[in-house]
Amino acid sequence: MKFSYKLSGIGWADVHLQIEDSEIYINTSYLSEPLIDLVRSIEYLLPECTPMDEVKDVVQFEWNSEPAIHRWRFEKTKNGKVQIEIVVYVDGLTSTPGKLEFKEECEIDLFIKEVIFSLEGILKQHGIVGYRKQWYAGDFPISSYLQLRNYLLHKSNFTINIKNQDEWNECIESNLSNELEIIKTIL
After folding, report:
1. Number of domains in the chain
2. pLDDT tens for residues 94-120?
3. DSSP 3-state assignment of 2?
4. Which residues constitute the domain of residue 49?
């Protein structure tokens, strides 16, 4: 299994996904938020990253590839696996039938590991501020990176503190020192 996500120009990213003998290359643009949609969708599949009432077995999102649209669909299957489907709408019209370009199943943890590796490559090459400049003012999904990295390391929720839980002035806090320690591991 291979996955790579690399910024290729101002507001453009080159993506490669290969599982078994199936592979797809996508050149996606800033007209959507592909990286954020990807990592948030993965988080929705994991109770360790998402409140229990928001966890999903099926998640779908779209990437704008000008003029094409790539519709991704993740479905949790048995034994810690995820089925990944990608349908392409060549003219960007999702009201017309698209073409199924990719459909494979893999271990969800292996997929997350590959995504995390790509995220870390982006951080090493561009940094957080550099990413924003390169991605046409879109922010790097740092909180999603931290949650998914923590999931791979500990298979648990990211440690947070809730003050005044279930009150009108509830306050949710994470530990910045812990977050920076995770980021330091990629340097």
Report:
1. 1
2. 989 999 999 999 999 999 999 999 999
3. strand
4. 2-184
